[in-house]
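Hi R.,

As promised on Friday, here is the backbone we talked about, encoded as structure tokens. Could you run it through your design pipeline when you get a chance and send me back a sequence?
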């Protein structure tokens, strides 16, 4: 799923190494949030100057979404300390990446 903002710019938190079974260790932002009202934890990564959240099959089933669906997502950083005045979680309607 594409993320329509730069987490470092919006939250003021630099990316950290995130371990991924698919991509190995890559810089990213650990997040928690909801997808169509279902809670999840994941990470925001960056490739080709675009930010994204991987949506695995388990989360797709739980949130009852398929590729191409319009979904409601809210995310926030998973950290004990937010950089000064970080905004409330972003609510955006987006389509999962194909």
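Update: got your reply. Pasting your designed sequence below so it's all in one thread:
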């Amino acid at each position: 799923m594409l993320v329509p903002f730069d987490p470092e710019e919006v939250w003021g938190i630099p990316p950290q190494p995130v371990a991924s079974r698919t991509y190995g260790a890559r810089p990213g932002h650990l997040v928690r949030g909801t997808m169509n009202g279902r809670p999840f934890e994941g990470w925001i990564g960056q490739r080709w100057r675009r930010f994204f959240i991987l949506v695995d099959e388990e989360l797709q089933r739980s949130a009852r979404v398929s590729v191409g669906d319009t979904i409601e997502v809210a995310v926030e950083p998973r950290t004990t300390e937010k950089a000064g005045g970080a905004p409330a979680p972003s609510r955006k309607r987006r389509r999962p990446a194909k």
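One thing I noticed while checking it: Confidence is low (pLDDT under 50) at residues 81-91.

Thanks again,
M.
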